[in-house]
Design a protein that fits this description.
With about 120 residues, the chain is mostly beta strands. About 0% of the residues lie in helices and about 60% in strands. Strand 4 and strand 5 form a beta hairpin. The protein is elongated and about 45 Å long.
């Protein structure tokens, strides 16, 4: 019923920038919050940034000051602007949405992930 599709990942040199996008589609009544998480090899998935319906944001310490999360409510899309990228940012980045679907069922959904690789 609900799908999240990420895009924008790729290979970038340290200090460079990337902009990730995630579009939610399907039977959606409302989206409470969307966020970005990442998982590096051998590590657990961790929060990068979240944004709620009112625009309030939350960032991991590692992302604060370098990454900016934003959303376009009309498009059910969330973005992650990443600047000053470091090799430690290398991971698969996943989009998440906390929402109610068309049947008003509350749920959390994940995208398929997009690879971000930062070279030194």
């Amino acid at each position: 019923q609900v799908q999240l599709v990420e895009s924008g990942g790729g290979l970038v040199q340290a200090g460079g920038s990337l902009r990730l996008s995630c579009a939610a589609s399907g039977s959606i009544f409302s989206i409470n919050a969307m966020g970005w998480y990442r998982q590096a090899p051998g590590k657990q998935r961790e929060l990068v940034a979240t944004i709620n319906s009112g625009g309030s944001t939350n960032y991991a310490d590692s992302a604060k000051g370098r990454f900016t999360i934003s959303r376009d409510n009309a498009k059910n899309t969330v973005y992650l602007q990443m600047s000053s990228l470091k090799p430690e940012d290398t991971a698969v980045y996943y989009c998440n949405a906390d929402l109610r679907d068309g049947a008003l069922r509350r749920g959390s959904y994940w995208g398929q992930g997009t690879q971000v690789t930062v070279s030194s």
